[in-house]
Amino acid sequence: MRMSTAATLALAALLATTTMGAVAATPSASAPATIERPAPGPSSLSTAPAQSQSVSASSTAPPPLDRPDTWQVIRIRITDTGNAEWTVESRFRVTDDDDAETFDEYADSVVSGQRDAGYDPQLFERYAALASESTGRNMSIENAAWDDPRIETVETDADRSVDEEPYRVGIISYSFTWTNFATVDGERIHVGDALQTSDGTLFRTLSSGQRLVIEPPSNYGFVDAPTSTENGALVWDGPHEFGENGLQISILEGAGGPFFLPGAGWLIASVLALVILLGGIAYLLTRRDIDVGVPIPSDRLSVLENATLPGRSNSPGDGHGTATADGNGGSDAVSTAESPASDDLGPGTSLEFEESVDDEIDPELLSDEERVHRLLKRNGGRMKQASIVSETGWSNAKVSQLLSKMDDDDEIEKLRIGRENLITLPGVDPTEVE
Questions:
Q1: CA distances from 13 to 36, 66, 155, 208, 230 (A)
Q2: CA distances from 313 to 98, 206, 334, 337 (A)
Q3: Which end of the chain is least crowded, N or C, by CB within 10 Å?
Q4: DSSP 365
């Protein structure tokens, strides 16, 4: 038995409006739920846009608070048993102490049941039952409850300027566990069929300001991720329209590590690592030649294979002195290199390496922290945060989170100058003019 069209539309409306709607009656084809689109402004922040006769106007009055750019986050964390831990967050901008007090009062009334915000566990139980019939797996909704309201400081947001000041948001969230949401096949977990119906996926669109996040279990990663990832999770930001095939996601155990490469990627990575290792050894040996101060004349390159390493002396009388072009045991070679005649050698008569070994390393093989250090060193030890975003191609959110962590670990220093963040290496004077 597949999910009915009316049930699909009801759940889609529930997830696609400002927040989860208050639905008291079972949806049917003859009496579909009425969706009220809130107008912009403070009055649009109702947590119950889907009205029903059982919900009074006073119980669904919107709070007098603005909403941030991302005002709803639907977070689905998949477990290694195939269950899904859902959390639906409604967010409100908190600009001062008065807003914080207003949010606390509103959130307490929602959590205590004085205000009906539409998070009805029985509603999700009905959809889990329909999905169970459709997939043939036993499903249920467990541990459905309100979380403690909280106010957090938002340092990053994909829709905001990287240099914009952080702000606070009040968060009301409702959580539950959907059992057997995904299928487990050995080391793989498949996600998507529980959201698929005969009329398409339950997630059809995301409105502007909505965000869908799907997180894998620990030590798991996504195979052929259908969208961008942040901190190992799939992230969709609205406005977004999903395809007709819905969400078909594969999660593989062990794929969550930073060095996971599918298929032939391991062979390519091994070859690259070997090339880099050999290049590094050759570079160090050449640097040793340069540090000793003995240039290698071009007319002696043909006999290098019979020579020992410079700077290594053999014990007297062992009969194995350093081999040179004239066979005199190496003493003449050193004296010749130190003679004034060596100053007259033209270009190409000695081996010189000026290129840094770091330039030969593929940036994809470096950690995020190493790439930031590399950029800073190339730019005199300091860069604007916006320039790092441009150079790396990472999102504003990822760069801000990474730099905050590196600042906490004393790997870099962040200085706020006007509306911009200046990033410097430790010990670099940010006021110094180049």
A1: 10, 22, 30, 14, 27
A2: 79, 73, 12, 16
A3: C
A4: G
Give tens-digit pLDDT for 90-140: 999 999 999 999 999 999 988 888 887 656 667 778 888 888 888 889 999
CB-CB contact of 238 with 205 (8 Å): yes
Cβ atoms 67, 44 nearer than 8 A: yes
Q: Helix, strand or coil for residue 293?
A: coil
Domain 367-424 classification at class level: mainly alpha
Q: Which two tokens stand for residue 428?
A: 């670099």
Residue 281 to residue 286: CA distance in whole angstroms: 9
Beta strands per DSSP E along 46-179: 50-51, 72-78, 84-94, 141-146, 150-154, 167-178
Q: Tell me, what amino acid is at 289? A: D
Q: Where are the alpha helices (DSSP H) in 293-339?
A: 331-338
Cβ contacts of 144 within 8 Å, gap of 6 or more: 121, 124, 174, 175, 176
pLDDT value at position 401?
86
Q: What angle do CA 226, 232, 234 make, to 5 degrees?
A: 35
User: Residue 357 has which token pair?
Assistant: 């070994």
Q: What is the pLDDT of residue 303?
A: 46
Pairing outcome for strands 188-191 and 249-253: antiparallel
| Tokens found for residue 406 | 């590196």
Neighbours of 187 (CB within 10 A): 12
Question: What is the pLDDT averaged over residues 194-202?
Answer: 70
Reduce the DSSP state of residue 45 to 3 states and report it.
coil
Burial of 245 (0-12, 13-18, 19+ CB in 10 A): exposed
The pTM for the full model equals 0.50
Q: Which amino acid is at 86?
A: W
Task: Show the tokens assigned to 408.
Answer: 């906490």
The structural domains of the chain, with segments of one domain joined by +, span: 5-253, 265-344, 367-424
What is the token pair recorded at 349? 């008569």
